[in-house]
Amino acid sequence: MSAAIDPNAALDLLKFDSDGLVAAIAQQHDSGEVLMMAWMNRDAVIETLATGQVCYWSRSRSRLWRKGESSGQRQRLVDFRIDCDGDTILLCVDQEGVACHTGRRHCFYTAVRPEGLVEIAPVLVSPDQLYGA
Amino acid sequence: MSAAIDPNAALDLLKFDSDGLVAAIAQQHDSGEVLMMAWMNRDAVIETLATGQVCYWSRSRSRLWRKGESSGQRQRLVDFRIDCDGDTILLCVDQEGVACHTGRRHCFYTAVRPEGLVEIAPVLVSPDQLYGA
């Protein structure tokens, strides 16, 4: 995606919760890997569609979170999809490097299996390298 | 997945919100298609791991929602994964039929594109057929 997209049709369809948020799932567009889940408010939706770079709302920091602003691990928007209820977004993205703050490609690295918890994704970059020691 | 899984390690890792819920994303295990997003409480996690059939918590009906209980479109659990924050689950599933109550394979059928909203997934089964007229 290169051109800015008018956000009005999306904003009309989205049903923001009482905190003004909708859930947003990021999926690597070609491999289908689910990378992470985060939140967007109205401004994050507008900025993401305008710039083609994914911007979330950080609930812990109460501010816009331009994914990769500290780590450089940005997400380029490839497609922006809304679910039947209008309360969840599926972002098809091209993830630069790793999506997880732990240095793993994705956040869903703990599998619950008969033998117990199993780590299924390796650390590819140390968090120190991502964020400074 | 066939054997029941002890839920305790998962329950220790999960951070339920103030409503006692965590987000749960369902992904078709082989195609990688993201099917839907819903919610689980503690009992839904326990039942899903015990039976190998996905059970959510319905926020609108305030009760356990055994996916497919009305429509027959069940989700067999293939893998159960937890994210780095412990507040989102990724369910790798084998979806019988369609995941969406509109009769589409998945819920994310509206794409927001430069030309406007585009419907990207067809209705495969009529809702009347799924739920009775």
UniProtKB/TrEMBL annotation, chains A, B:
It catalyses: 1-(5-phospho-beta-D-ribosyl)-ATP + H2O = 1-(5-phospho-beta-D-ribosyl)-5'-AMP + diphosphate + H(+); 1-(5-phospho-beta-D-ribosyl)-5'-AMP + H2O = 1-(5-phospho-beta-D-ribosyl)-5-[(5-phospho-beta-D-ribosylamino)methylideneamino]imidazole-4-carboxamide. Its EC number is 3.5.4.19. It is an enzyme of class 3 (hydrolase). Its cofactor is Zn(2+); Mg(2+). One of its GO terms (biological process) is L-histidine biosynthetic process. Zn(2+) binds at residues 84, 100, 107. Keywords: Amino-acid biosynthesis, Cytoplasm, Histidine biosynthesis, Hydrolase, Magnesium, Metal-binding, Zinc. Binds 1 zinc ion per subunit. Binds 1 Mg(2+) ion per subunit. One of its GO terms (molecular function) is phosphoribosyl-AMP cyclohydrolase activity. Gene3D superfamilies: Phosphoribosyl-AMP cyclohydrolase. In the N-terminal section; belongs to the PRA-CH family. Belongs to the PRA-CH family. Homodimer. This is Phosphoribosyl-AMP cyclohydrolase. It comes from Magnetospirillum molischianum DSM 120. The gene is hisI.
